[in-house]
Amino acid sequence: MTYPGPPRPVQVSATPLAELADQLGAAAPDAAAEITGITHDSRAVRPGDLYAALPGARLHGADFVTQAAGLGAVAVLTDPTGAERAAATGLPVLVVDDPRARMGELAATIYGHPGRGLLQIGITGTSGKTTTAYLVEGGLKTTRDTGLIGTVEMRIGEERIKSERTTPEATDLQALFAVMRERGVEAVAMEVSSHALVLGRVDGCVFDIAVFNNLSPEHMEFHSDMEDYFRAKAQLFTPKRSRLGVINADDEYGRRLAREATVPVVTFSAEGHPDADWRAEDVQVGPMDSTFTVVGPEGERIHAKSPLPGPFNVANTLAAVVALAAAGLDPQVAADGIAAVPGVPGRLERVDAGQPYLAVVDYAHKTDAVESVLKALRKVTKGRLHVVLGCGGDRDRTKRAPMGAAAARLSDTAVLTSDNPRSEDPLAILATMLQGAASVPAHERGEVLLFEDRAAAIEAAVGRAQPGDTVLVAGKGHEQGQDIAGVVRPFDDRQVLREAIQKTQG
Ligand SMILES: CC(=O)N[C@H]1[C@@H](OP(=O)(O)OP(=O)(O)OC[C@H]2O[C@@H](n3ccc(=O)[nH]c3=O)[C@H](O)[C@@H]2O)O[C@H](CO)[C@@H](O)[C@@H]1O[C@H](C)C(=O)N[C@@H](C)C(=O)N[C@H](CCC(=O)O)C(=O)O
Ligand SMILES: Nc1ncnc2c1ncn2[C@@H]1O[C@H](COP(=O)(O)OP(=O)(O)OP(=O)(O)O)[C@@H](O)[C@H]1O
Q1: Is the distance from the beta carbon of residue 148 to the nearest atom of ligand 2 less than 6 Å?
Q2: Where along this sequence does the record place binding of ATP (predicted)?
Q3: Full-prediction pTM beyond 0.80?
Q4: Are 151 and 130 in contact (CB under 8 A)?
């Protein structure tokens, strides 16, 4: 199987392998090779590449060196356990103890430190990274040619490329920066996941501005506990990774981070925290957007509009305005650019087929996000609120019962269903969600329905909708597939919801 990998720059000056060996402090290989690219994935190798054969949790990249050599790799970087397999190809091999920890700096060298000329704004937090990145990009666009890197897509100017993950691996990221540089991009808004920080994906980057939105329990399959999760996020707020932190003072972990960060920080609050440097005041939450005044430390007063509904999007918008002000943009110009963002794919995205009620698709797939979005929609719903929701298989199991409970407590109809069960039995996942729903006292919970089939669940919610109601289909947002037993079948909530509505409209 081949995989094209992300785009690569056209112009790269070759770096002698010996120079890279020197940078690593590794033994110099006897062969002279000239390196013009680097990848950690054998399927994405291009002629002239250094192939980084990494030890992983499941596999070892050294098992794929033959493929890498066949595709034109001219040298291999690996750890001691991969050295013998790599040498068997006859290619020169660089051996270091932890190649994953070194490949970011090598990629930066090979592509000529492409991030240095870019204004880089990195966004982290459990919820709101994608949304804030789009808003930051909208503000940046007012004065600069922009790029965007995140969960939904990567954008180089107007070109859009589907993302493999939230934060690309370091080899891909540096190549992407080099492409951006070639195409005249001046500023980039980028999501930085905790996985990325732990796995060295942003090694070789120093963000001009690092934004922290919030932290709530999530990814407990990857982080041992909340402390470990916090520590991962906190790495972004050190001089090695950023120059200035923009931190949410409404979040308890944000307040801790503001105290413990080793870079200068400015704080913001959408909830009136008295010590915050920047605050949102006069907030008017409308059905599909919100307006407010951003008040700055020097008495600045900026008229801002969140182009998305819900109080949490006031916080995301405020984060974006403050980040852009901290980056030196005129905050009013930045806020106007943010207000003009047409929406964020799969984030409170409206589906309109002429029905007399509101129908939205949202990426909420974590307990906090589900609670926030249901509370936000409750405020703008005159009638009843119906939610369709599932939990992924082979991922954090601890959130299943709380998500079932949140859906039951905060909606009138909770239709529990499948959401990428992967290798797990969908009914077993549903049983845990149902236990959570059942833990809510009867007088505090709405109707709870179970449908293993997601399309049937969406139809059931739509079937209950009356004028003035809201139907929320949560979990998948922009995603376009459903992974059942390792087979990904096409499934787009927006399309299935539209078709279900059209059926009832007759
Ligand atoms: C926990 C985690 O993030 N693991 C990532 C890590 O896996 P790993 O080191 O265990 O690698 P492995 O699968 O054992 O393979 C070992 C090596 O062999 C290589 N290989 C493998 C097969 C092959 O044919 N050729 C080949 O070269 C792989 O590229 C890898 O370098 O390195 C792999 C190579 O890049 C990633 O694909 C993999 O991401 C997994 C699939 C993943 O799903 N990660 C998610 C959880 C993630 O990173 N999520 C965050 C967002 C979280 C959020 O905020 O919601 C993200 O930033 O996307
Ligand atoms: N600041 C916020 N606080 C709480 N919930 C939020 C916030 N921003 C967005 N959400 C909710 O979380 C969902 C995901 O938002 P978004 O994609 O912007 O976050 P993310 O951090 O990129 O998520 P992920 O890590 O899952 O990709 C939204 O669809 C919305 O329901």
Answers
A1: no
A2: 125-131
A3: yes
A4: yes
